[in-house]
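Here's what a typical entry looks like (TetR/AcrR family transcriptional regulator):
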Amino acid sequence: MRDDSAAVAETAAAETGTRARTRRAILDAAVALLSTDQTASLGDVAAAAGVGRTTVHRYFPERSDLLAAIGADILDKVAAATERARLDDGPASTALERLCQEFFELGDRLTLMFDVPQFMNWDGWEEETAADAALLRLVDRGRAEGSLDPEMSAEWVQNVLWSLLYSAWEHARSHGAPKHAALTLCLRTLRKAVAP
């Protein structure tokens, strides 16, 4: 016979897993929907996520709660992408390209960051995140080692990177370019832009 406390713990873990999957489904549906229709309602998000409107309201009572959760999720994904890029490995120019590829995979989240005004005004954005600091250090290293243009400040290269990523996603989204082609153009342009 099973111990009742083990059964309760197992049930709680299953409920937690279900809640996490539901929350993730809502966030992913909201990102996909809001990146193409910024006026989408919570009801629209519920339909896209395949859940009821009351379920969405249980997780995110107001639209601002959903946007804050998306913002936090974007910051987490940017941090994870920065980690995966292994910025300390190899020449800085190669690491910068790896970072660009990782950030490109954020897709619709990038579109939201730049297109939805609420994100730019959201108080959850820090002035400089750990990912920002890592990128700036990488550019400084590249300038010092000679693999990146020493005349370009780290902040300028950071802005160029984000602008190119936005342009690549816009090219894929609005002009129907295959994502791999948009990424190839993005990397080629970045390589030329920051070359010494």
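Residues 70-196 form a domain with the Tetracycline Repressor; domain 2 fold (CATH 1.10.357.10).

More examples are in the samples folder.
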